[in-house]
Amino acid sequence: METWPVAECCEPELxxxxxxxxxxxxxxxxxxxxxxxPSQYHEKLKGAIVEVHFALGHYFIKKTxxxxxxxxxxxxxxxxxxxxxxxxxxxxxxxxxHTPKK
Length: 102
Known about the structure:
Number of strands: 3
Shape: extended
Oligomer: single chain
Number of helices: 3
Number of domains: 1
């Protein structure tokens, strides 16, 4: 985790977490069942179509009569790579100008 890519402004917070948390990488895989390393999360996952496997937990707190749900990620498989987006601000304007409104 010490080498995980984070924004420079977040680096001090990451260092604090190292002594108090046991953080595991995402169980993210490509179609060849190869694990995606943390250094490639942004490139490989942002905008990708993925299949998500998770466990859903449920707890009922009797005293407060509340239901608590949580999802535990088990596996993330990239089914389709992210679509390349235009890099020019002008292209962004042209795309949004031609996008039909709902």
